[in-house]
């Protein structure tokens, strides 16, 4: 493998470009993007873009270079391998393709803790992608503390370059390739900007555990008492909505590290889903979509250039990328203390999980490794049954190591910190999807407030027959019937059947971790269904 000095690589690509624009600020990037004809400006001054064929990530096109560092450490069952020779050829060909054109360079930071900080240089021909990543990462000079010796990372972004499977070892035209030994990332063949953001987190998630830092795909905020809370959850579970609270300054929306000094944000912005966005339910996010320089991906605009968030004809994965600075309450420096509370969010469309349950450390690790939610097959005609989704560590595509590495780290940190772990279900009650109803956001907020305020610390509980966790018998302001899902179903036998079914899905999913995983990580989260 060729050794590449980051400074030399960046100068070489810059020298071959016709024009280089380094570290343009937001108004300049908006102007350049507008001049390119690739964007529309909304009535409020946000940048509206379309990402073409890719309206989401392409996980099957993501590769990690297999070399001496990664060969025995990466969980290859979850990651595709690329040879060093293919990567070098891909990098050289992308460099050649970018020659003679416009190049935008952004020198940014990832990691609010200077001890765990990376200098991220993004090279791209696209002004709106440069604006996107400037919104999402930390700009030098922001409130975050800066390291004098950050680790160097270079991202070469060529959205219009088409990879050649035979020449580059890819699956098709699109490729996201990470060389974790040299911290070089190549992204090509896709306009979807989320690939840039998530490639940074993937790189961090590989390196961080070696330094005793747990990488986490979660939100985090701080209460008036200074206590930190974490929010894990897959898309659609309410992670962004529930962590955005003007009374609790936001540390970050999506990516964090838990080190010896506490929690730190990896980013400087938010990448929020906008499908069905409501000014009543999510006022902070709604307001951010109106901010000048916010990037709206695949959001439909009306004739007056106003976003129509209820129109998901382009994709339900429409998103807004904006800086944390536009929010009313953010944590100074993007850091917080050791967590006091860890919340796992799920949207159970089977309608059997209670809206709240307290987890033991063993159960918390089991749920962390399971990463469960249920998605609806709404895009498939005739399919009305919920579909269980399991994503290890609530972010399997971005966690290059075996999930049990992260699971053991979480277990150690929970036991050392004494943090309380809770499961909150934002899904269905009184029956599954199509029969029951979605748990209302007001009830969920009351449940969360009771957790964060410590009101449930000594609450009386029952042990769930199927899942073994402790469910509070009473929560102020919440209908007691909601706390016992079986009693809310018209047919108790149907509830039992669905509960057994879901418990079985948990067990089958956990089998992929191997027969020794249970003994290594504590008792099973799910009880054996009789």
UniProtKB/TrEMBL annotation:
Entry GO CC: cytosol
Gene3D superfamilies for the chain: 3.90.228.20, Phosphoenolpyruvate Carboxykinase, domain 1, Phosphoenolpyruvate Carboxykinase, domain 2
Keywords: ATP-binding, Cytoplasm, Decarboxylase, Gluconeogenesis, Lyase, Manganese, Metal-binding, Nucleotide-binding
Cofactors (names): Mn(2+)
Function: Involved in the gluconeogenesis. Catalyzes the conversion of oxaloacetate (OAA) to phosphoenolpyruvate (PEP) through direct phosphoryl transfer between the nucleoside triphosphate and OAA.
PANTHER family: PHOSPHOENOLPYRUVATE CARBOXYKINASE (ATP) (PTHR30031:SF0), PHOSPHOENOLPYRUVATE CARBOXYKINASE ATP (PTHR30031)
Protein name listed in UniProt: Phosphoenolpyruvate carboxykinase (ATP)
